[in-house]
Amino acid sequence: MSLLLREKGRVSGAFGAGPKPGAEGLTGMSKSPTVARGGAAGLAALRDQVRRLEQGGGGQRRRLVLPLGLAALDAALPGGGLPLGALHEIEGERAEWDDGVTLGFCLALLARLERAFPKAGQILWVSRQGDLYPPALAGQGLDPGRFLLVRAKSAHEVLWAMEEGLRCNRLAAVVGEVEGLDRLAGRRLQLAAEATRGARGGVTAFALHRRFRPLRRGREASAALSRWRVTAAASRDALDARFIGRPQWRLDLLRCRGAAPGSWQVEWDDAACGFSLAPALCDRPLAAQPRGGLARDGQARGAGVVDFRHAV
What we know:
Elements: H1 2-16, H2 21-30, H3 33-36, H4 39-54, E1 65-66, H5 71-76, E2 82-83, E3 87-92, H6 99-116, E4 122-127, E5 147-151, H7 155-166, E6 171-178, H8 183-194, E7 204-209, E8 226-233, E9 248-256, E10 262-269, E11 274-277
Parallel strand pairs: 3-7, 3-8, 4-5, 4-6, 6-7
Antiparallel strand pairs: 1-2, 8-9, 9-10, 10-11
Helix pairs in contact: 7-8
């Protein structure tokens, strides 16, 4: 009994020697840096710290980005541009292989990368079909001599060649035409791309999906830093044009680490090698046109003069 009383007195004396919770104890807690900044300021600081970690800051080398040349688009991306040394997924909207828009958007990104880093290295292109036409790359402002074309026999070989290419620091980018990208494969490609980060931003990977995935079925979780959906839009018909106008796309940023989803309708200029917001449509919608029929003068309502300036 005496031993228990002595131990009880020792514990009571230990707690009694410190400050009382009602006085100095609470005062000391009020001096905490997190509480002193206030709830809103502390939450903003925490969000800023998480954003820096997602962008590669906070003890690591900051991730380099590739500005796309459009202020509205760059402002929505983390760091003011497309992050380099990472994996990006590009898919179409139609059920068939929409190579016209997804391929064009990927080549536009590569053209921006080649202009920003002219000595970055070659570009590895891996596919099973092998239908990339090198002479057409010059029309996109790209040098066909910088491309290394690899034709794989299976989907597994496509992913293997992409991962091996990402381990080569002498490459500027790796493009793979994939039929699917599960979470494990995407994680391996993302880690391989992040391992090459250096003074030039590292090797950037682009996964072009050749298999359509309906939105209603959802998407599997992916380790890719961003995921884009590209849809074709009607090009603008300039007055002095003799051929088709500049390509226009609707870009949907479905997911991006450190940024919110967004949608833009852009126009690509091959000569300037940059994006711009697509101008508004000049023609009125069909619903605003008067219905057909003959007026008193015998002319068809809503009819107009057809311009044959493009006729040969």
